[in-house]
Every structure is written in C-alpha cells, then in structure tokens.
Amino acid sequence: MKNSIAERIADFLKNYPPFFSLTYSELVTISNEVHVVHVEKNHVLFKVGDKTHPFFYVVKEGAIGLSVTSDAEEALIDKCDEGDILGLRPFFAKNDYLMTAKAREESLLYAIPIEVFKPYVLQNQDVLSFLLESFASNTRNPYDKENKGKLISENVIYDDQSSEIQYFQPISYVKNPITTSRKTAVQSVAQLMTQHKIGSIIIEEKELPIGIITDKDLRSKIATGTFPISIPVEQIMSAPVITVPENISVAETQLMMLKHNVGHLCVTLDGTNKSKIMGIISEHDVVVAQANNPGVLLKQTKRATRSKELKAIRDKLSDLIQNSLDKNIPIQHICNLVGEINIGITKRAVELAIEKMDQTPPTRFAWMNIGSQGRKEQLLMTDQDNALVFEDVEEERYDAVKKYFLELADKVTKTLHKIGYELCPAEMMASNPMWCKSVTDWNKQYNSWINKPGEKGILMCSIFFDYDFIYGDEKLVDAITENIFKNVENNQLFFAYLGTDALKNPPPLGFFRQFLVEDDGEHKDTFDIKSRAIMPLIDAARLLVLSQGVRGINNTFQRFKKMAELEPQNADLFESCAEAFSILTLFRTEEGLLNNSNGRYLNLNDLSKSDKVKLKNSFQPIRDIQDSIKNRFQLTYFT
C-alpha cells in the first residue's frame, strides 16, 4: 500500500534543488522518514548555542527568519521561503548552531533526518555539490542568482567564543607541483621528494594526472620490502588520483579528503583528471588554513605572552580580510569578525600590561575602545583610540590611583603600538590624563559636552560617543552610558550642535557632478573618501541613535539598520545609507590592502568607469540623510 503522505512530500521536494537531482523512488524512500513540523509565528526552531538537531529543514509553507546576535542586537540575516533549505550545519560541523531560526509567520517545515539523507549525498555528486556550495558560500540556494553571495550565518559566529570563517576561504595550495612519468624508477622519485622536501609527487601523462605517490606509499610498499626500489613508480602509485577545481574552499577540501579517505588532492584546470595539472593540496594545507581562521586566532591571542606574538596574529588579519573579500563576503560581516579579533588583541595587551605592573589594580576599572575600534569598523591598520574609567575612590587616594592607571595605560598603548596600531596623533588614548578618569569625572566630562557643547575650551569630541567595553568591570561603563542618555533626552541644544557637526562635510560632488578632490598637499588630486564620504554617514548615524535613545549599537551600518526598524516610514532612506556605508567601506578597504595604506585617499584615475559610477551613486544617500537631519533638528540656518 502506497504511503500517500510520503508521496505528497516527494511531489513537493522534487521541484527544488538538490532534491530534483534524485530519482522519484529515492525521494519517496526519504519522504517516508520525514517529520512534518508546525512552527507558530515568532516561535524559535533553533537558536544560537543550541545543540544541532538530527535533521535539516525545508520550508513547505510560511517563512523562517535567520538571525545572528551582533553588538548585543539580533540582526536579521535572511528569510527562507517555500523550498528553501536551512539548518545544514550538522552535515559539516559538530558544534552548536551559530544562528537563530525563528518563524516570521505560521510555518510548516519538512524535517529530513540527516542520517537518512547522508547516503544520497555521498552517492550523488550533484546533491553533494549543492550542499557544499550552499554551506561554503552561505547561500541558501547557490542556483538562485538573486541570492547568490548573500550571507546566511550557518557557519559564522560573532561572539568571542569562536569566530569561524574558514569555510568561506579558498584553500592555499602548492602551485606548479613536481611531477614525474609512470616509468620513472621509485628510487628516482624518492630522491626527487627528498631533494624538494615534499611528501608527494603526481604521476602525469601528457600533463594529465594519472596517479600519485606519497611518503605513505614508500613506507608501506618499499620500506617493508614488498616491492623493490628499482621498479617503475606506476606499480605502486595510487590511482586514480582524486582531482578538484581551483578555488576550492577549506570545507570542500575537508569533505573530499574524508569522502575518499585520502591525504592529497590534485588541483586541475576544470576539476577533472582530463585537464591540466595546476597544483596539489595536502592535509598540511588544511591545517594551515584552519590555523588562520578567526576562532584559532582568538585562541592564540589568549595564549600570547609577548607583543611579538600578538603582532603576528594582527598581521594575519590582512590575509583573512583579503580572502573574505575575494569570496564576496559582505563587508559588515568582515567588520564584525575583525572587530572581535581586535578586541581579543586589546584584551590580551591589557592583561600583559597588568602582569608587568608592580601591583595589581588598586580598584575596579574598565578599558574602552573609542572611534572606529569602538564601532568595530577598523579593518585597516589605522591609529588607536581608547579610554579608561576607574571606580570612584576617596579623595586622598585619587591621585595615586590615577597615577597607577596612567602608567598601566602607557604600557598598553605602547604594546598596541608595537603590534601595529599607531599612536593617536591627537593623543585620544587612555595614557593621556584627559582620557583616564573616574566614573564621576567622566560623567562631568560628558555632561559638559552635552549641556555646553559650544563652550570654549571643552570642544566636544564626538568619537567619545562611539565606545565599546573591552576589559575590566562593565558596570563602570554602564554607569557612564546611563548618565549620557539621561542628559541627552530631549536636549535640543545638544542635538542642534551635533547636527551642525554632522553637516560640516556636504556631499562630495561639485555642481557638474564632478568629484571634489584635494586641491594641494601630498594628496593633491586624490579623493578623501574618509572625511568627504564615510564620516558624514558615521556622524549622521551617531546623531540619530542618540536622539532616539538607542543603546548598545555602535556600528554605523547597524545604527542605520536599527533606525530603519524604528521608523518604517523612513526605512528606504536608512537602508540606502547602510548600503552606501558598506560600499564606501569596501572601497577604502580595497584601496588600503592594495597599497598597504590606511585607504583614505583614492586615486580616481585607478578606478574603472563603473566603479566611479558606483562611488558617485553612494553619495546620494549622504545628501538625503543630511537634508533629513536639517528638517528633523530644525537646522534650516545651515547652508
């Protein structure tokens, strides 16, 4: 007797990848094991930190939102609709879910047991390729052009437990490897391997791979006396050799080695053994790739005992950022990951400085990053900005306590300088007595900025409103935050001053839509993307979230996203600002990586026509948001 429910499920699945690559009878067999799951609106299917389920899911009806927690806010990453797959993580990793799946409307899901489906994955190359691409490229459907490249955070995490990005990265491997022919004597092959200090050699014929010999073959077949060393290598080579295409990711590499039980893969032009040999991947290459992922880098920061070790970790970040850009990972996710590593490095720098002090801290304190680091927007090696707050102490102890923390801060900033974070030219660092204060003194400082923003001698430093707790007692930072928001509430004078400051850099296009470039100096005729384009958006986002009483969101992109959520009627404007900020950050990052600079000044002659158009289009939201700020805060006098 036919199972009509299983057939109905199979009839649905056959319309969507990767299921359309299976036979109908296979789908019916699978469908007999499928569970139908009903999820009420706003109910959670699984959340960050949950143990992985023995199922993955296909949306039959409704919509499931996928979100991650970033900067203490839940950020919606994507939405899965009818036919979309979610929850693939258990296929590829044993650790917990790294995102939350919550029903955005009443939904019906098919839960497919992984153990039931796994044999079909290993037997069917199309199904395997689909799941690998879905997981490694983070698209819910790699065949869907509209969503290609869109991040679904099934394998990325933003907290300081373990930041992983290895599945995105193309693996680095040995290009133009040493090869030999099938008739070469084993002894000659062994001598070649010794001479070049390699553990394997590909056997080729007419530039095509026909086999491989490894150290393991020499040990098990020659050293044991099973075969004489004079025989031709074709008699002991492993064949056929397992081939893969270029730009294979770390995840795909691991799975291929696991599937075929091999320690080496041959890279060919088209991924088959019928095309030219391009390189070889070893298990060692996988180990090296994993050693450069953020999770490992974070663990290394916690074990570091010298600034030299922390510098080596920070230097690896440039490769991580470049690899991430090459894989089209959204710039904001790169910012989050790099931000966590910057935090880890700073934390360790503070800990090492405390160890070098003659005594332990005399009272509770907290270290804060401010400016771009406080916003988690520092991808390039720019200068450091930080501050320190310590607990209120008796008046007679104050000077001695402050002296201790200034000495501590001096050690920290010098360590950070050795690591590669330049000292701030304006001395906005915790080693400056102005920026190393007790809670009460910090509150007095903020009160002056907020209530007397234009008064001579207390020029407001707006970047101090972009701060992030790094180390120590977070309650001290919370006390400052509480004071700030108490004072800014309905404070029209403060918002007018901050608004005027946000309008100081108008959109960077002249009357005829030409770029406004530098007139003189060493950067003559270049475009200052930081001050002319990025800073206006940073300033606008800061003003808006402060005026709305939004706490705990420091990142400019996330600030605009939050504003879009708070004001649906203005969502298009805020979304366009968030997108423009991402585009501008990407331009600056690519410029900095290319020229080993801070990326601030773009040579417009180096840009393609399409890039110039893309850059110009990102300026319109600056004009729109500044017009909105003029109206919102009644700054009509500003021209």
Structural class: alpha+beta
Poorly predicted regions: 136-168
Q: How much beta, percentage-wise?
A: 15-25%
Shape: globular
Instruction: Tell me the distance between the termini.
Output: 80 Å
Helix percent reads 40-55%
**Overall pLDDT, averaged?**
84
SSE blueprint and pairings:
Blueprint: H1 4-13, H2 24-31, E1 35-39, E2 44-46, E3 55-61, E4 64-70, E5 73-80, E6 85-86, H3 89-92, E7 100-103, E8 107-113, H4 114-123, H5 125-137, E9 174-175, E10 179-180, H6 186-196, E11 200-205, E12 208-214, H7 215-222, E13 243-244, H8 250-260, E14 264-268, E15 277-282, H9 283-291, H10 294-303, H11 307-326, H12 331-356, E16 365-370, H13 371-374, E17 386-390, H14 395-419, E18 436-438, H15 439-451, E19 467-472, H16 474-488, H17 492-502, E20 527-528, H18 529-547, H19 556-566, H20 571-595, E21 601-602, H21 609-617, H22 620-632
Parallel strand pairs: 10-11, 13-14, 17-18
Antiparallel strand pairs: 1-8, 2-7, 3-6, 3-8, 4-5, 4-7, 9-15, 11-12, 14-15, 16-17, 16-19, 20-21
Descriptive account of the structure:
By secondary structure, the protein is of the alpha+beta class. The chain is 45% helix and 15% strand. It has 22 helices and 21 strands. Helix 1 crosses helix 2, helix 10 packs antiparallel against helix 11 and helix 18 (529-547) runs parallel beside helix 22 (620-632).
Give a brief description:
The chain is α+β, with helices and mostly antiparallel strands and 639 residues long. Helix content is 45%, strand content 15%.
